[in-house]
Design brief:
The protein is an alpha+beta fold and 465 residues long. It has 13 helices and eleven strands.
């Protein structure tokens, strides 16, 4: 208890409780922002003008605590805001699952389409600390030109800071690693083209003939490994060509699709971004490749969707240091592992060269050169994040309308003609550490309540059985 009373946040939290509206008003504000850790603070109002010219204020931030409206930041990054990242991860799961099982505007028949889970790795740019299947790192290895023995007899734990670090930083090709990350999007685009060609070869058809029969649909998620290189996790589905999502001909099985993908990955290459076109400046996928057919057995399609969704909220590193773009180089006070710092510094340095300026590498130095989105999909694979958010907003509006205490309020909500919203950005985050502390407590109470409700439902199900 002594620690609690000496906490400097306590007086600030008590001041919030003594403010107009007290805890109840602040709790409503936090819940309205979906328990966001760094909400956007807005000042403004929503005004409706009727056909007769009368103006009616539907909402005014002046009636809220601190006279501002809190809006969720909506980030996908777990390191920045866990509550918002949780919502994004749920949307990512719904998006991927709909493409595998149907729903959200996607026909249920897609559950019978061949689907393959594909994991693509980056090639080696130097020897790094790792954990092999038997738990060892590098049992043996030569001595590099710099006199460093490229071997390590340790068994690294999952939280070992050495994992992903170069055994000899002088030997590691940091520039090539950055340029590979910058080339991943083009390499994936070519992989989809090669895969369709390989599918035709395995099926005994010409490329033109197979393109008239089937189409590849996919969703992919980028994962940053400990060594700072990009890996891809992709779900690839095979559809029949046409406006409607129909199953491909029986000759195109999931096993045939898996074989075509593996063949294409082994053969595909792309020009290295920012480099001259030559055999020396080509990028390929790494030797480690995982190709697995996704089926309905043991909820395989649901597990595949959850597998991709969990990577959608990861950042370049685990502590959120690189969650924002760098504006003036890599500061010395930035707490980064030596290996990752070298990658970021290489991206910043390459960004000042001719090819790097064209690639805007300095703008992407915080992602070690990777210039794409975390989660992308083909147009026909599934629904969109925008559609999912619109559905959620519509559900919330309908829920508020249902519980409205006044018929006048309900009618105003239904008539959206003449409604004007005017908002001014005030800032981000809670104004005091005490507010942030209270908001985390409210979020924790909500989490425990949901967990308790879930356990109660499970107990009732076990009793019924």
């Amino acid at each position: 208890m002594t620690d609690l009373y000496s906490d400097p946040r306590l007086p600030l939290a008590l001041a919030r409780l003594a403010a107009p509206g007290g805890y109840a008003a602040f709790e409503d504000q936090v819940r309205g922002a979906r328990f966001c850790r760094r909400p956007v603070r807005l000042k403004g109002s929503v005004v409706q003008t009727t056909a007769g010219g009368d103006r009616r204020v539907l909402f005014d931030s002046a009636g809220q605590p601190d006279r501002v409206l809190l809006k969720a930041c909506g980030t996908r990054r777990q390191t920045l805001c866990p509550p918002c990242a949780s919502i994004y991860r749920g949307d990512a799961f719904a998006l991927v699952a709909a493409g595998l099982r149907g729903g959200k505007g996607v026909p249920d028949e897609v559950s019978h389409h061949p689907a393959v889970l594909l994991t693509l790795t980056a090639p080696s740019f130097g020897v790094v600390h790792r954990t092999t299947r038997d738990g060892t790192c590098h049992r043996s290895g030569p001595r590099c030109p710099h006199g460093t023995a490229l071997r390590c007899g340790r068994r690294h734990t999952e939280d070992d800071v050495l994992l992903g670090q170069a055994l000899c930083p002088a030997c590691y090709d940091y520039d090539a690693a950055v340029l590979f990350n910058a080339s991943v999007s083009e390499l994936w685009r070519r992989t989809t083209i090669y895969s369709l060609r390989a599918l035709g070869n395995l099926a005994g058809m010409s490329v033109r003939a197979v393109a008239k029969e089937v189409r590849l649909s996919y969703v992919k998620v980028v994962e940053f490994q400990r060594r700072g290189s990009v890996h891809l996790h992709a779900l690839v589905r095979l559809d029949a060509v046409g406006d409607e999502l129909k199953a491909p001909p029986n000759a195109f099985s999931a096993e045939l699709l898996a074989a075509a993908l593996e063949l294409a990955v082994r053969r595909v290459y792309a020009p290295m971004a920012g480099a001259q076109s030559s055999a020396r400046h080509q990028v390929r996928w790494g030797r480690e490749l995982d190709v697995a057919v996704v089926t309905d057995k043991d909820a395989g399609r649901r597990r595949a969707a959850a597998y991709l969704a969990k990577y959608s909220t990861k950042s370049t590193e685990d502590h959120g240091v690189l969650d924002h773009r760098l504006r003036a180089g890599v500061p010395d006070e930035l707490e980064l592992p030596t290996h990752l710092r070298s990658l970021v510094e290489s991206a910043w340095r390459l960004g000042d060269e001719a090819g790097g300026r064209e690639l805007r590498l300095r703008a992407w130095a915080h992602t070690a050169g990777y210039r794409g989105h975390c989660l992308t999909k083909s147009r026909r694979f599934s629904t969109t994040f925008g559609a999912l958010r619109a559905n959620r907003q519509e559900w919330r509006v309908n829920e508020k309308r249902t519980v409205a205490e006044s018929a006048d309020i309900a009618e105003a909500d239904e008539d959206t003609d003449g409604i004007v919203s005017e908002w001014t950005f005030v800032g981000m985050g809670y104004t005091t550490a005490g507010d942030a502390w209270l908001a985390e407590s409210i979020a924790e109470d909500e989490r425990l309540a949901r967990r308790s409700a879930y356990e109660e439902r499970q107990d009732l199900l076990r009793v019924d059985q």
